[in-house]
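Appendix B, record 7
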Amino acid sequence: MAQTIRIIKKYPNRRLYDTEISSYITLEEVRQLVMDGETFEVRDAKSGEDLTRSVLLQIISEHEDKGQPMLSPQLLSQIIRFYGDSLQGFMGPYLERSLQVFLDQQQQFRTQLNSMMGQTPWALLNELTERNMDAWKNMQRGFMDAASQAAPPPGQTGPTGRTTTKKP
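Structure tokens (predicted):
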């Protein structure tokens, strides 16, 4: 079954109208469509021109102004330098592939972390506790073995010159 593209119309007053729900929406609601994986296009209500990229860039710009930005001035400057460059056509696909590799690695990391954690964080904590107890027991055993090897057998003279006796 082919997925239909959701159409959002942008009017001259800069309002966005979602034709699927027959209601005006905000940029934040468009952002939520992106987060939800919805397929949509933003079209100029009068001319029909595709404005999707400019609306997405506007969302990025607003989020870059808030909180912790992802795009440093250096990165933005480097991207701007690619416009008009002979390699401009390669930059977009390269960035898309790089981001996809990053997302794939992030998913692998999350999967590995989840498998390490088991069903609950308590399972990991219990496992660590058991390992620490085993390590502690091994260390105690090592001390006991070292002490027993250093002590002379009963009836022999030890390093202090005293004779050791066996207690009944």
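Remarks on this record: Strands lie at 6-10, 16-18, 23-25, 40-44. The mean pLDDT is 84.
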